[in-house]
Amino acid sequence: MRLLGIITALFALCYPHQVSSQSQSQACNSIVTKDLLACASDKLKKADAHLNSNYRKALALLPAKKPTLKEAQISWLSFRDEYCQDIYTETLPGNEADIERTLCLALLTSDRAAEIERLYTSSQDREFYRAVSALERAGYDRAELMGKLKNSASQDQKWSRYVSQNCELQGQVKKENEDNCKARTNFNRSY
Questions:
Q1: DSSP state, residue 121
Q2: Which residues form the Lysozyme inhibitor LprI-like N-terminal domain (predicted)?
Q3: Mean of the pLDDT values across residues 55-78?
């Protein structure tokens, strides 16, 4: 039995990625609250690392846009934290409240990382424009559709503020039309 423990420890030292992915996979497939929270926390940690990496790259590649990027980031953080806290509050007193909040933070953080990456890559969000074109071919009026998407989240002031600041930045850096950016950002909102 002791030999099995030593072999397991050596395997974990030599191949930590396999052990951590396996234990993460087990945690994510568990029905135990503690395991699910660990899974959600791991997803948030990875999303946060990705966001921080993309944010540092954007700051380094776009030094003239640093104030605008910071303003958009502060607006996004304000939205994210309030939105996920609302999820937490609505879920209380359930045991899953911490899990829901942590997964919310992870999802929103992952979305923001992709939006920041869009600033310094050639990503044009083809899926959005393909979807709009498909709807147009199906008979929907493109201008009406884009108008509805642009204004689809206007009742949420923190989200609207973030979208406006982010699209101002996207316009300055990528020359993206502000209305198209707002429509795209609202379309991509996964929450």
A1: S
A2: 32-115
A3: 96
Residues 161 and 182: their CA atoms lie apart, in Å, by 11
Q: What is the pLDDT of residues 80-111, one digit of tens each?
A: 999 999 999 999 998 899 999 999 999 999 99
Least trusted range by pLDDT, from 14-18, 91-95, 106-110, 126-130: 14-18
Domain ranges of the chain: 35-188
Q: What is the pTM of this model?
A: 0.81
Whole-angstrom CA distances from 172 to 18, 59, 120, 142, 181 are 43, 14, 12, 24, 12
Torsion sign over Cα 191, 76, 102, 90: negative
Q: What is the dihedral of CA 178, 184, 186, 191, to 10 degrees?
A: -150
User: Which residue, 17, 41, 15, is CA-closest to 28?
Assistant: 41
H runs (alpha helix) in 62-156 = 66-91, 97-120, 126-137, 142-150
Contact 51, 108 (CB under 8 A): no
Residue from 187, 114, 117, 106 nearest 151 by CA: 187
**Cα distance between residue 15 and residue 9, in whole Å:** 10
